């Protein structure tokens, strides 16, 4: 008897996974410290921004290549050096927009991104929305920054292109403590297989 072995190419795996649907998931993480992962992705945190403090910038280099472009110039400061505390021990870079909203244009092929957001007023809503319409709203707390995370549920699905962060009632918004995931093509294939298996298991339970 002849046994036939069936092999799936990376392209076939990605095609099958893509047919199962893709969506961006939003995570409202509150005031606690971030984890190492977001969804199925291991996150890479941004290093210290070595540019001068108290100057306006329009972008931040990404540790995985490319950069985050801000829709408006933002003031580059650090927690404790131009901005107050309340970031669960974080003492790194933050970027202050004196507009009520700022859009973060992400590097190509971004599949996951998290950040913290704050503003000067107490108990005001901070909202974040992605290019596909996924939205998170969290009520700010005195002297605290809030975690906002977004990731593509299907690694073969469309990347996250931009995130708009807004606090219209306070007239300003502060963002910082960035982390990103841009998996290599081979890693995307493996994540796609894992995601496909998870979807099959969910369907069997239903």
Task: Please give a structural write-up.
The chain has one domain: Jelly Rolls (Sandwich), CATH 2.60.120. The chain is α+β, with helices and mostly antiparallel strands. The model is unreliable at about 1-20 and about 200-205 (pLDDT under 50). It contains 2 helices and 15 strands. It has helices at about 10-20, 185-205, and strands at about 25-30, 35-40, 40, 45, 55-60, 65-80, 80-85, 95, 100-105, 110-120, 125-130, 135-140, 145-150, 160-165, 175-180. Strands 1, 4, 5, 6, 7, 8, 9, 10, 11, 12, 13, 14 and 15 form a 13-stranded mixed β-sheet that branches. A two-stranded antiparallel ribbon has the order 2-3.
Topology:
Layout: H1 10-19, E1 24-30, E2 37-38, E3 41-42, E4 44-45, E5 55-61, E6 67-79, E7 82-83, E8 93-97, E9 101-105, E10 112-118, E11 125-130, E12 135-139, E13 146-152, E14 162-166, E15 173-181, H2 185-205
Parallel strand pairs: 6-7
Antiparallel strand pairs: 1-13, 2-3, 4-15, 5-6, 6-8, 6-9, 8-15, 9-14, 10-13, 10-15, 11-12, 11-14
Helix pairs in contact: 1-2
């Amino acid at each position: 008897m002849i046994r036939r072995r069936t092999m799936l190419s990376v392209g076939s795996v990605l095609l099958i996974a893509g047919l199962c649907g893709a969506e961006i998931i939003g995570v409202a993480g509150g005031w606690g410290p971030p984890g190492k992962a977001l969804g199925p992705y291991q996150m890479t945190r941004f290093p210290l921004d070595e540019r001068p403090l108290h100057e306006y910038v329009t972008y931040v280099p990404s540790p995985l290549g490319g950069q985050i472009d801000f829709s408006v110039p933002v003031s580059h400061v650090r927690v404790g050096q131009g901005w107050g505390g309340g970031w669960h021990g974080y003492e790194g870079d933050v970027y202050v927009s004196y507009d009520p909203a700022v859009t973060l244009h992400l590097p190509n092929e971004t599949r996951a991104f998290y950040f913290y957001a704050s503003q000067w007023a107490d108990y005001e809503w901070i909202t974040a929305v992605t290019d596909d319409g996924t939205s998170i709203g969290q009520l700010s707390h005195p002297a605290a920054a809030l975690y906002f995370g977004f990731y593509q549920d299907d690694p073969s699905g469309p990347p996250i292109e931009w995130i708009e962060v807004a606090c219209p009632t306070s007239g300003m918004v502060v963002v910082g403590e960035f982390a990103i995931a841009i998996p290599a093509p081979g890693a995307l294939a493996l994540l796609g297989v894992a995601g496909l298996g998870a979807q099959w298991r969910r369907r069997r339970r239903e």
